[in-house]
């Protein structure tokens, strides 16, 4: 039986992915300058979050989706570190929150990994 909290995680990624389309400027302003075509990357990452969030809900795609989430979160770490690089990059978010996001990212990776083998 699939635990209810897997669906909480799935919903979290689907909602986060939808936000890339609802508020794309919010995501574009935190993109590192060295990355090209910010708008396209924001939309692609939103699609990835939605598909991976849905994918964890099904036995046939759960394992692949959980590892996709882990990989995606690993890539997103570059954005979190970039946001720590300066005042403009931080988008006005207090530094202590930005610092706390780093271990949170690793917790989210572990949370996804937990479902890879259920």
From TrEMBL:
Keywords: Membrane, Transmembrane, Transmembrane helix. Its main location: membrane. It is a multi-pass membrane protein. The keyword Transmembrane helix applies. It is found in: Membrane. The keyword Hydrolase does not apply. It comes from the Bacteria. The chain crosses the membrane at residues 6-22, 42-61, 67-84, 96-116. InterPro entries: Methylamine_util_MauE. Residues 7-88 form the Methylamine utilisation protein MauE domain. Pfam families: MauE. PANTHER family: DOXX FAMILY MEMBRANE PROTEIN, MEMBRANE PROTEIN-RELATED. This is Methylamine utilisation protein MauE domain-containing protein. It comes from Flagellimonas abyssi.
């Amino acid at each position: 039986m699939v635990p209810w909290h897997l669906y909480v995680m799935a919903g979290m990624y689907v909602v986060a992915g939808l936000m890339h389309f609802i508020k794309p400027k919010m995501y574009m302003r935190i993109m590192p300058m060295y990355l090209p075509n910010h708008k396209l990357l924001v939309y692609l990452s939103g699609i990835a979050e939605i598909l991976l969030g849905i994918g964890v809900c099904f036995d046939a795609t759960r394992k692949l989706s959980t590892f996709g989430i882990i990989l995606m979160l690993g890539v997103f770490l570059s954005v979190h570190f970039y946001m720590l690089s300066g005042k403009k990059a931080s988008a006005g978010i207090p530094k202590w929150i930005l610092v706390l996001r780093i271990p949170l990212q690793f917790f989210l990776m572990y949370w996804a990994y937990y479902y890879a083998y259920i």
